Amino acid sequence: MASSGQPRTQWLGRWGFMLAATGSAVGLGNIWKFPYITGEYGGGAFVLVYLACILAVGVPVMMTEIAFGRRGRGSPIDAIRRVVNESGRSSAWSLIGWMAMLCGFMILSFYVVVAGWSFSYLWKMLTGGLAGSSVDDMAAVFGANNANPFILGGWSTLVAVLTMVIVGKGVQEGIEKNVSWMMPGLVLMLILLIIFGVFSGGFGEAVSFLFSFNAGSLSSEGMLAALGHAFFTLSLASGAILTYGSYLPKGASIGRTTISVAIADTVVALMAGLAIFPVIFANGMNPGEGPGLIFMSLPLAFQAMPMGTLFGILFFLMLSMAALTSSISMVEATVSWLCDNKGMTRKSASWATGIVLWLISTLAMLSFNLGADWTLAGKNFFDWLDYLTSRWMMPLGGLGTVVLAGFVLKSETFRDELGLAPLPYTLWLTMVRYVSPLGILVIFADALGLYQVSFAVHWPWLLAILLVMVAVGETLSPRLRQALRSR
Ligand code: PFF
């Protein structure tokens, strides 16, 4: 049973939660994925939809998760169970916590492989292993790196070990201490890289690519990618934010903290775009290169520029640190659950988690070499982990979380925990009851191939559905008006 008798650890410093949650949010999703999907889906219009998704779905879900964590003071499973029990509801809702914990673990199993790429490129840059490579060489280097399971496995093992060492040291001594220097360091490196970008000759083009709005380039697929990415980039429904929230002191404002984390995450993603695209454009490369953008195009581009190796080193160092501050957050839920429920010390819980992680991530790593043919329905193991978590588990977990908070629990619980004034509280409630669920249902409809949504075309329908949802919801349980009158 959870050790409810003992007071729960809390972040030591005023910035502890902010830095750790931002560290979790800012990762490969911002620096590797955001630039390449922005490139694939056409730039500015995609960025705008992404920002809307962060505001309408990401922020409300994140607030809800932090509130669950702080109220329930435990891992996702224990915290959700305590909060639902407080409202006299069934413990079965803690299944959402189980799924979140599993989801964080599954993401980490493929995340360490990509983080391993980053560490290996850092090493190549440091040792001059890429000097003089041509476009074809670069693709060959990327291929060779992946083809050898010992090399690829070695790098992903290194990431897994570093993650578990940090987590094993504890919330304050391990996580908080390390994010406290890694996050400022990361921002500093990013600023230096942007300055490099300004002088690269491609800065203007990069700015107009990222910020000029061209509605014509808005595809329905791009919009779904934006919504899915909002979950991933804010580390939602994976146990990370909820568990970090369980260490948040009572007095901290959940609304303000969430908005700061969401802004920091978005600013870093945009800054990453401003660091990467100028270099790509200055060298006449294609921004829509896909997943290989920062591993193949970018090192090549850096090489062609004065002081490029130095900035290349800086770039991969920054990427590796960003990955590490995220990976530690993905196992914290599991480690905290093991400590609370199985009486394990943090060290043994971390190593036990690390061994299982290593086994699964090895299977994910093999998808790039020996196991490339082990496919099911056209997807290898790595693809399945990515697909199941981003298309299904995160949206499903997000939906469960908002439905639970918006409809199932007693209204006092979250009013209390969030401590918002009537108007912002009503706004939050509208989002978790109607707007976020609708957005998530749209992702499912697409994943099931039921309906291809294009907001540009279908927005009147979506608005009508939203209004019907509000009318039905508020007739059955009129909480919005009550919320407005609540204080
Ligand atoms: N937010 C991280 C990124 O953008 O790279 C990924 C992530 C971290 C997802 C933690 C889930 C999680 F629990």
Features of the shown structure:
0% strand; transport; mainly alpha; 487 residues; globular; Na/ntran_symport; transmembrane; symporter activity; 20 helices; transmembrane helix
Describe the structure concisely for a colleague.
It is found in: Membrane. With 487 residues, the chain is mainly α.
Blueprint of the fold:
Elements: H1 16-25, H2 28-40, H3 44-72, H4 76-86, H5 95-126, H6 135-147, H7 149-168, H8 171-198, H9 203-211, H10 220-233, H11 240-245, H12 254-282, H13 293-303, H14 308-342, H15 346-366, H16 381-408, H17 411-418, H18 422-447, H19 455-476, H20 479-484
4-fluoro-L-phenylalanine (PFF) binds next to helix 1, helix 2, helix 5, helix 10 and helix 14.
Subcellular location: Membrane
Pfam families: SNF
GO molecular function: symporter activity
Largest sheet: number of strands, sense, barrel closure: none
Overall 3D shape: globular
Q: Provide the low-confidence segments as ranges.
A: none
The structure class reads mainly alpha
Helix/strand order, N-terminal first: HHHHHHHHHHHHHHHHHHHH
Bound molecules: 4-fluoro-L-phenylalanine
Radius of gyration: 22 Å
